[in-house]
Amino acid sequence: MIAHLQRAATTAALIPALYGLDEPHGRLRPRLIGADYRGADKQLPLFGDPQEVLGGGVLDAPALRIGARAPEQPVWMCSVRSDPRHPDLSDAQWADVARRLVTATGLAPAGDRNGCRWAAIRNDDRSVHVVATVVREDGYIHSTYRDPFHVQAECTRIAAELGHLTRSVTTAKDHRMPVITISAEPSGSVVATGTSDDLSATLLRHAGFKQIDDWHGRRHRLPTTTPRPDAAASATHAAAMLRAARYNVDLDPRLDTEPLNTAGQQILHLTDELRGSTGFAELAGVLDELLDPDDGMLVRLQEALEIASEQITDLDPDRFELSDKFGFASDQLVTVQAELGEAVDEVQRAVSSTAGTAEVRAVDDLRTSAALARSTTAPAPGVPAVSTRLPPVPAAAAGPVGRAR
C-alpha cells in the first residue's frame, strides 16, 4: 500500500478532486464508507453520497470554533492505494484501513471522544481517501509532524497482514544494537562479552583487548599483566568508542575513569554528604549549596523550568497547556524557596546554640565542682581562703548569633 498526504483550507475544496470535476474524462461517483463525526449536533450519513459531509462544513466545524487559532489548512486528507497485483478490498475492509490510519496517527484514537472528525470516501477501485480535520473537539490541534511515518508504517503492517508483501516487515526492534558488557572478574582480568559482530570486535581490539574464541563463545579480554589503572583507562576508552558506534555498553563502575557528571549525580553526592554530616555546622554548609537563594540548586532548577515554559510557548503558542505544566512547577518551587528561605539560618543558629549550651554546661560543671570542694574542705586557721570565683559565661552562650551570608 502507498499513502499520499495533502492539506486543504476546507473540505469543500476537495470536491472537484473527489468527484472528478476537474478531469476532462467523465465524472466519478464517490461513496461514503465510514465516518466519525464526534460531537456533531445532527444526524449525518455514514454511507452513501458524501456531498452533505464535504459541502456542509461538518468536518470544518471544530476549526471554525477556535477562529484565528486554527491553522491555515486544517483539512487533512490521506489517499491510500493498494497493490494492483492483488485482489481489491471490500468497502468494509477499506473502512477498517481508514480507521486504523486515524488511530495510528493520533487523529482519532480509539475511545477518545475529543478526537478529530473524519470520513472515509471511495471514488475508484483499489483506493480510499480519508478526510479529517486536525482540530480536535476540545479545541486542541493535532500535530502532523510524524504523520507520514505513522501512515506508511501502518500501511506496511496492513499489507503484510493481507499477504500483499513477499518480504518480512522489519521494525526498529530488529535494528537494535546488542548490549556489550565490560566487567572486572574476581580474578582481576577485564572481559568484554556480547561482541558477536565484527565491528565491535574491531573496536575492542583497537582498545587493546584480545579476542578469545572457545566453547564459551566469542569474548575479548585485556592481557592479565595490564596494570589496574591502565586496564580501567582501556575499558573506558573502549566503552566510549562502542557508544559512539551506537552500541549499548554496560561498563563496570570500577572501570569507569570518566563517570557522567550529571545534575542528578551532583545532588546524589550532596545527599551522601547530608547523610554523613556529624554536626549542625557541616549540615548547614551542605544545605547552603542546595538552598542558596542566588546560586543554589533549587533556584537553578526553578529557573530551568521557567525557561522551559517560555521556550515551549515561543516554539508553538498552541501548546499552552504543556507550557503551563512547566510554569506551574516553576511557581511551586518559588513557594518552596520562600518557605525554606530561613531554613539554613535556623540550622546555623542551631550551631551557635549548641556551642553555647556546651560552654554553659562546662561552666556549670566547674561551679558544681568548686561548691563541692568548699563544702568538704575547710581552710586552716590563719590561712587565707582561696578564691573560687569563676569567670563569667562567654558571650557566645548569651544568645544566638545571626548567620553571615
Going by helix content, strand content and strand pairing, the class is alpha+beta
Order of helices and strands: EHEHHEHEEHEEHEEHEHHHHH
Please work out how many helical segments DSSP would assign.
12
Rg for CA atoms: 38 Å
Query: Could you give a short account of the major beta sheet?
Result: 5 strands, antiparallel
In spatial order, strands of the major sheet run 1-3-5-4-2
In percent, how much strand structure appears in the residues? Answer: 5-15%
Helical content band: 40-55%
List unreliable stretches of 5+ residues.
Answer: 168-175, 395-405
Shape summary? flat
What is the number of E strands? Answer: 10
Average pLDDT, all residues: 77
Task: Determine the N-to-C terminus distance.
Answer: 70 Å
